[in-house]
Design a protein that fits this description.
Elements (H helix, E strand, L loop, with lengths): L2 H23 L15 H18 L8 H19 L12 E3 L2 E3 L1
Antiparallel strand pairs: 1-2
Helix pairs in contact: 1-3, 2-3
């Protein structure tokens, strides 16, 4: 198989996963219900990303779930939400560049 066709297949799977979860959870990425967690949309997505990374680090998978696809989905969702909200996609909030010792670097 060509990388292009496999890439299209994987991206379609992630897209379907995101659309399916959005239908199940409502638009919770942009409009979190905030009953227990009080953070904004980005902060709540970051918590989910941390949870997925912790699960990968500890080697714990739930039956029937693909933690890697979930992680990729949350990372994409984070980019989408930051774009919709007009925010920086970087956790340090400095846009695409950050300052180190007086110089802007990637």
């Amino acid at each position: 198989m060509q990388i292009t066709s496999v890439l299209d297949e994987v991206l379609a799977e992630i897209r379907e996963l995101l659309l399916s979860k959005n239908a199940s959870y409502g638009n919770s990425a942009l409009q979190p219900i905030g009953i227990f967690a009080r953070g904004n949309s980005i902060e709540q997505i970051d918590v989910r990303i941390d949870d997925k990374l912790n699960r990968i680090k500890n080697g714990h998978e739930f039956h029937g779930e693909d933690t890697i696809k979930d992680l990729i989905g949350y990372l994409i969702l984070r980019l989408v939400v930051t774009k919709i909200l007009g925010q920086s996609p970087r956790p340090d909030g400095r846009g695409l560049l950050r300052e180190e010792q007086g110089q802007l670097v990637d």
